[in-house]
Specification:
This protein is mainly α. The chain has helices spanning 12-23, 39-61, 76-124. Keywords: Transcription, Transcription regulation.
C-alpha cells in the first residue's frame, strides 16, 4: 500500500498520523494490538476477581458433605447462581453451628456444673 507524501497533506494531524503509520506506530486495530481498558472496566475486573477469591475461601470453609456440587464452568448467569447457592449454604451452615453451640451450652449447664467442681476437688487432694 502506498501512502501519499506527508508534504502533500495540509493538515498537521493527518501528517502526523501518516508518519506514525509509516513507522508502524499509532493506533491500529487488528493483529497484535490490545484495546485499552478504561479504568472503570479494570476496576470492575479487579473487584470481580476479589469477590471470586473470597467465594473460593468461603467454599473451603463449608464441609463438602453439606455443599451441593454444581457443574461449574458456565457463563456469568451460572456463576451468579452458583455464588447465590454458596451463600445460602453458608448461611445454613452458620445456623447449624449456632444451634450446636446452644445445645452444647445447655449440656454444660446441665451436666458440667456438678462434675466440674467435683473434678477440681479431686485434683486438690
Amino acid at each position: 500500500m502506498s501512502f501519499p507524501s506527508a508534504r502533500s497533506i495540509s493538515s498537521p494531524i493527518l501528517r502526523e498520523t501518516l508518519r506514525q503509520r509509516r513507522r508502524g506506530g499509532g493506533r491500529r486495530r487488528g493483529h497484535g494490538w490490545r484495546r485499552r481498558r478504561s479504568p472503570k472496566q479494570s476496576g470492575r475486573r479487579k473487584e470481580m476477581k476479589r469477590v471470586a477469591e473470597k467465594l473460593e475461601a468461603l467454599k473451603l470453609l463449608i464441609p463438602s458433605s453439606l455443599r451441593s456440587h454444581g457443574g461449574g464452568g458456565g457463563g456469568a448467569a451460572e456463576a451468579e447462581a452458583e455464588a447465590e447457592l454458596l451463600l445460602e449454604e453458608a448461611a445454613g451452615y452458620i445456623e447449624r453451628l449456632r444451634s450446636q453451640v446452644q445445645i452444647l451450652k445447655h449440656l454444660v449447664d446441665f451436666y458440667g456444673a456438678g462434675e466440674g467442681n467435683a473434678a477440681a476437688a479431686e485434683e486438690e487432694e
